Amino acid sequence: MSEGERLPGPESARYLRVMRRVVKSDRRPLEIKPQAESVWICMCGLSKNQPFCDGSHKTTRDEEEGKTYEYDAEGHRHEI
């Protein structure tokens, strides 16, 4: 099914189905703005306050492109 394809709904009504997806960004968090204040969702996987960002992504700033890293419980980075 493609994004935006129309599907029959309950009682023969028609509605627009929109497929949403989160595209992971290893370098910064995702901002959600449905409230009076923004909510930041962790996208790097390093936050100790999942699913919310705690700023841990800042440790990834000097990672080299094309390399994969993992971080241990103390926050030490290791290339894998």
Topology:
Blueprint lengths: L5 E3 L5 E3 L13 E3 L6 E3 L27 E3 L5 E3 L1
Antiparallel strand pairs: 1-2, 3-4, 5-6
Question: How is this structure best described in words?
Answer:
The protein has 80 residues and is mainly beta. The protein contains no helices and six strands. The chain is elongated and about 40 Å long.
Instruction: List the helices and strands in order.
Output: EEEEEE
Total tally of structural domains: 1
Number of helical stretches of at least 4 residues: 0
Return the CATH class: Alpha Beta
The total strand number stands at: 6
Q: What is the end-to-end distance?
A: 36 Å
**What's the overall average pLDDT, rounded?**
75
Q: What is the annotated CATH architecture?
A: 3-Layer(aba) Sandwich
In CATH terms, what is the fold-level topology?
A: Ribosomal Protein L9, domain 1
Relative strand content? 15-25%
Instruction: Please give the order of strands in the largest beta sheet.
Output: 1-2
Structural class: mainly beta
Gyration radius, rounded: 19 Å
Which residue ranges are poorly predicted, with pLDDT under 50 across at least 5 consecutive positions?
Answer: 5-13
Quick summary of this structure?
With about 80 residues, the protein is mainly β. It has strands spanning about 5-10, 15, 30, 40, 70, 75-80.
What descriptive keywords fit this protein?
two-stranded antiparallel ribbon; elongated; Ribosomal Protein L9, domain 1; 0% helix; 80 residues; mainly beta
